[in-house]
Design goal:
Length: about 400
């Protein structure tokens, strides 16, 4: 199913018609334009004139700007998120400045514990809490690293920069996520920690699109090079995660053979690690992680029949991190929707919202799944209408 173009007025008209529970013929009967023209506008074959948009907006009971641009709900959401993100951006810019005399130095052990807690908050999908806690923590760790540098301080700062990347990415700020990764590399180098540096390469690789496959592949290889000769449990887990990252990069470019090769390598490393390595930088690398990435690759490759079998075979244990559980539910919704199982897809979306509302609301796949359900539904259930309004459609 093709993704909806957010700049396509006809696509927005179709969404809001579905939300109003009207067929094309029913809406055409309410406007001074033909059914044929409405059909062509919705599919993008004909442009929507101002007069046409005004007539449709009046019939649907919405403001015309809702049909021609981003919805007001989305703008409100974006303003709120921007207010949370702005202090993080400012804190990331402190890295090369002299310490402010107004900031009080804190024990490194306390700062390291706080860094671990904010990372845990992200895994528990408490994104707003993490976003609020990050700026003062980055500031305090920057001061500590500048005034009394140590391996533990630089490691904690690198970890916190990594968390800032995760928060920025989950909230849709890719530019800020890139800055945070640059800072992570800067701190990891000073910590002389190859595992943290390799995780940064893994994160960098995932930030590149299908057209940049060779760059993504090279970044993963750079991560493996950093771990060369190391066989600790930590290094094995990070190496396995790099293979999973490589599988995602390969899937984006349609390289099915590379996907299979990296999934197999990750599965073999998971056997060597033994159990879920949750203590290794919150990667939670293990067999379940491999299965979830294999599912993700099938979705990216649009192998939805295969993905359906994989998703129904996966049984998440009760100890699964909230962020991972919610992501799986959204993936499951996409797969069910693409296989024509709308009711199941909607149930998974509702469960994802209940499990992790902040993460689910901002995840692009949530919007894709809800948009797909709106396009395929003959009548829009109340639950789907509420979900659409919730994400700003």
């Amino acid at each position: 199913m093709p993704a909806l173009d957010d700049d396509h007025t006809g696509a927005r008209i179709k969404e809001h018609r579905k939300l109003a529970r009207l067929t094309q013929r029913e809406l055409a009967a309410r406007i001074p334009y033909s059914y044929s023209l409405l059909n062509q506008v919705e599919c993008g074959a004909r442009p929507a004139t101002d007069a046409f948009v005004e007539a449709v907006a009046a019939a649907l009971g919405v403001d015309a700007t809702v049909l021609t641009g981003p919805s007001h709900v989305t703008e409100i959401q974006q303003a709120r998120v921007a207010a949370l993100v702005r202090p993080i951006r400012e804190a990331l810019d402190l890295f090369d400045l002299e310490p402010s005399p107004t900031h009080r130095s804190q024990p490194v052990t306390d700062l390291s514990a706080a860094a671990d807690q904010v990372c845990q908050d992200v895994r528990a999908t408490h994104l707003r809490k993490a976003a609020k806690d990050l700026p003062p923590l980055i500031t305090a760790l920057t001061l500590a690293a500048q005034s009394r540098p140590s391996t533990a301080t630089w490691q904690a700062l690198a970890s916190t920069y990594r968390t800032a990347h995760d928060v920025a990415l989950k909230m849709g700020y890719r530019d800020l996520a890139t800055v945070a990764l640059d800072r992570m590399g800067w701190a990891a180098e000073r910590a002389s920690d190859p595992c943290l540096a390799a995780i940064r390469q893994y994160k960098r690789a995932l930030g590149h699109k299908a057209a940049e496959y060779d760059l993504g592949r090279r970044l993963v290889q750079a991560g493996h090079d950093l771990l060369d000769g190391q066989d600790s449990r930590e290094a094995l887990a990070v190496a396995g995660q790099l293979h999973l990252g490589a599988s995602a990069v390969a899937a984006r470019s349609g390289d099915t053979h590379a996907v299979a090769r990296h999934i197999a390598a990750a599965r073999e490393l998971a056997k060597r690690v033994g159990g879920e390595a949750r203590e290794v930088h919150w990667l939670s690398f293990g067999q379940m992680n491999v299965a979830l990435h294999e599912l993700g690759a099938s979705i990216t490759l649009r192998q939805f029949d295969k993905a359906l079998t994989q998703s129904r075979r996966i049984k998440l244990p009760p100890s699964t991190l909230t962020s991972r559980r919610a992501r799986f539910l959204v993936d499951r919704a996409v797969v069910e929707m693409e296989n024509g199982h709308s009711d199941r897809a909607l149930r998974h979306l509702v469960e994802a919202r209940r499990t992790a509302p902040e993460q689910t609301r901002y995840h692009p796949a949530t919007r894709d799944a809800i948009t797909g359900l709106l396009h395929t539904a003959r009548r829009t259930p109340d639950t789907l209408s509420h979900m659409a309004a919730w994400i700003g459609l």
